[in-house]
Protein 1
Amino acid sequence: MALLELRDVKASYGAIRALHGVSLKVEEGSVVALLGANGAGKTTTLRAITGMVKATGEINFGGKSITGKAPEDVARLGIAHVPSGRGTMTQLTVWENLQMGAYVRRDREKVKADYEKAMNYFPWIRQRRDQVAATLSGGEQQMLAIARALMLNPKLLLLDEPSLGLAPIVVREIFEIVTAINRDNGTTILVVEQNANLALRSAEIAYVLEVGRVILSGKSSELAKNESIRKSYLGD
Amino acid sequence: MVELASNPVLDFIQQVVSGIAAGGVYASLALALVLIYRAMDVANFAQGEMAMFSTFVAYTMITSFHLPFAVVFPLTILISFAGGVVIERVMIRPFEGKPILTLVIVTLALFNLTNGLAGLVFGYILKDFPSPFSASPIILGGIYIGQQDLGILAFCLVILSIVYVFFRFTKVGLAMRAAALYPESSKLVGVRVSWMLALGWGLAAAIGATAGMMIAPITFLDPNFMQPILLFAFAAAVLGGIESPLGAVLGGLLVGVLLALVGTYLPAGQNLRIPFALVVIVAVLLIRPAGLIGRAAVKRV
């Protein structure tokens, strides 16, 4: 059974419909990429999952419907959403950002263990815990955002364009860490990307959105060979 | 009032000390204003009236039920906290996400409502609020310092410290700061942002109550007694930087001292205190809108 399943999900911003019925499946333990151009509805799909935008249709997580649930409640189910632009709490310290990631948790000992685990991926954070988050570079803020998400010990990690505005070398590092997180802990990951090349290499399955609809989906390896994908997203 | 020392230097120092004490009260009320301003970008014009109502509640407990201060203070703080939460749920919540001006009007309505209700329930006759502190001064190096002033200052400092520790070192305090500054990110990590706002109102009401109870023995108690104090608190908050809790406290102490000096040394100074507070507000907004330690408000368009 899929950990996350969307069926005919529609969402609008005021009068403008952003999703015209998106359906997709994310199997437990997999990495799935959501590709598409600007305005295709990638971010809105993630926002619909975590209740940041009102959606109709059916969104199931772990076999239960989470359609229409408030973001606070979705987070409590174990879905960590790293929003586009990282959602860094810039005036708070790095440590406070991490603490906020574990806000809903009551199992202190396990939180400590998860902090140690997160620090394995981002060892530099240890030395900079007391720094105000605004002083971090863009790449560091993105890593902090992922570390914060890990503090929830999420079953499902939603990443919204982790490559946005970052140097290629930093992007590669981040994607290596993301795949390592999936490999080491079996964390299910749904990642939104414009950088299709990288996303197709990291994910097993990919969905391609165009104007609020899924127009293509399948194994990343096969999509990477697809003629129209190569033309539209891989710059061939 | 303490009899003034004849030495002009000692006299000056005495005025500064009593200004700092009153400043503690302005600082508390200013902090309450800043809490709500940070959380919802709105100046709560009803903050003073809420404090006034709390003070009447304390007064009733003291005069009608003859409870000791040690019971009345914490009880009033608790009742005010609950009142603040209820006010947010009932009057503010329905307007969440509405334009700022709408919220401003709502706080003005709350101002009138609280004022009228207090008049209805407690009446408009001036009341003498008993002081928990002795009126007799202690003499320190030739300076007469009112025990009342010291008591007020000590009490305010304790309250402000508790608020500081709460925001700095507790999980809920951290969540409230995060919710005020980053509502979206906070929701995504599971913070019930809307309840944090209610908690903020409760806290602001509780802090305001302490300010009311501390200043009432110096002034008199009636439904309008907090209005000048609120103006002074606004001056303090603006001077410190309306977004900065530390600025509110510093601004409060500074405004307290300035007002004490204006009241003493300018002819007819007591009557100039309110205009002076307005001058402070206007001057800060003109010269340094961000206040002493506030950050300049840069809004991206």
Protein 2
Amino acid sequence: MNDLVWIFVSALLINNFVLAYFLGLCPFLGVSGRLETSFRLGLATIFVMLITALCAWFLNTYVLIHAPYLRLISFIVVIASTVQFIEMLIKKLSPTLFKALGIFLPLITTNCAILGLAIFSTNKGYGLAQGMIYALGAGLGFTLALVLMAGLREESETAPVPRLMRGTAINLIIAGILSMAFMGFAGLFSAA
Amino acid sequence: MPKQADAYQEFIKGLWRDNPVFVQVLGMCPMLAVTNSAINALAMGGATFFVLVASSILVSSLKQWIPKQVRISTYIIIIATFVTVTDFTLEALVPEIHKELGAFIPLIVANCMILGRQEAFASRNSVRMAVVDALGMASGFLFALFALGSVREILGEGKFFGVDLFGPSYEPWVIMILPPGGFLTLGLLLLFFSWVRERKEKLAERLAETEGELS
């Protein structure tokens, strides 16, 4: 039990996917303009990450012990098609949910955070429960970073930023400072 | 020879004017994490270089046979194949570097720059032009990674390719080799490049003005 809590906190704060591993930077810089949109993108990512963890565990246990060189290709193909399938399922079953998450799902599938999650949890040798908790922590961490960034960006739009620095340059520097703040959580290691 | 000039233009386009990192800001996911030293940056750049060039050759030569509806998935599978090849090759040849880059070699697949080049260029042009375009873009990417890695290693460790630069009295900026340093360095480099571009544009404007006055 302690182990699972530890995995969760580590993925959520200490090894935050965006701010420590630089995964999922494209949506992080592209979509984080509005608070509302980034929150919904975050939710959709958590959802896809949970599916990914399930797929990755299944593939690792049943398929990849026979053909390890297929790892990358099978991860991509299986994750993408499962997400597509579930997208169709949601569309049929719950149009409201589809409206909230739908447009983001195809975008997320090719996101490096998703593939990164599958590869990291394989490398760490996580089982099903550990993998799911890891996915939940990573997804929540991604959402947290995205929402924090969106809030900061909404502020910085009205701030007197030098003209040359506007756009990606200032966003990266904000992300750098945010990442520095998150490094403080590494102190949890010595506390535990 | 207009043909050669074209090819040269395509090459230079990727290396400088449309540099994938500094101008288009693509392919950041795998690059920031591994550029904490010049050698890691070179290895990552080299791996991406191979994958981009090889998949551009394959995609542009297969373009008649790839159905429009499934083209993206086809590109991804082609890219993933070459990434797997690269991953195993690096593991066999340079195990230490492979260990340091770790999970980020497989993540080359998710580099939007590579897929972008297949979709925007290789699928519509001859094999020759696709190779030139891929070489240009890949060199641009390699150059950007190397610039980032060098800055971070020199400031963060006071070393360049493991050689001590400033002697023992130098206090390294440890933050530069940690994650925040990656964001900050890239942000500042982007700032530098847009400054250079603006100066060039202003210069061109002034030149055009003086020429207008002269005639």
